[in-house]
Amino acid sequence: QVQLVESGGGSVQAGGSLRLSCAVSGIFSRFYAMGWYRQAPGKQRELVAAIASIGITNYAESVKGRFTISRDISKNTVSLQMNSLKPEDTAVYYCNSNRNNEDYWGKGTLVNVSS
What are 75's strand-pairing partners? Predict the structure, then answer.
């Protein structure tokens, strides 16, 4: 059974930092594209950052230079380092793994940034 479990969310003031982690079990995440998505209240889910199986990363324009996605192959985890957080970063953040017809999601972790 494939499981993605997010952790590291919480409340922080604007300008602060958080580090999200996604623990993956049931698959070797190194062979999958891994991504972090977020969904703010009343808005559609959007891609925040992704890392391909070969290590190429891409980011939403709104987080470039502030967020960094990385993976730890030995621990089978994917992390999202979030710096200089803004109130508009407030959302539920979801971990995703994708390969061909396989698509897995975690249940999400809440990030709340106050001004």
Answer: none
Question: Which residue bears the tokens 């972090």?
Answer: 36
In whole angstroms, give the CA distance from residue 69 to residue 51. Answer: 7
| Whether the Cβ atoms of residue 42 and residue 19 lie closer than 8 Å to each other | no
Phi, psi values for residue 60, rounded to 5°: -65, 145
Tens of pLDDT, residue by residue, the chain (115 residues): 999 999 999 999 999 999 999 999 999 999 999 999 999 999 999 999 999 999 999 999 999 999 999 999 999 999 999 999 999 999 999 999 999 989 999 999 999 999 9
How many C-beta atoms surround the C-beta of residue 109 within 10 A?
A: 21
Which residue type is seen at 54? Answer: I
As a whole number of angstroms, the distance between CA 44 and CA 27 comes to 27
Contact yes or no for 105/92 (Cβ under 8 A): no
Residue 48's DSSP bridge partners are none
Residues present in the chain in total: 115
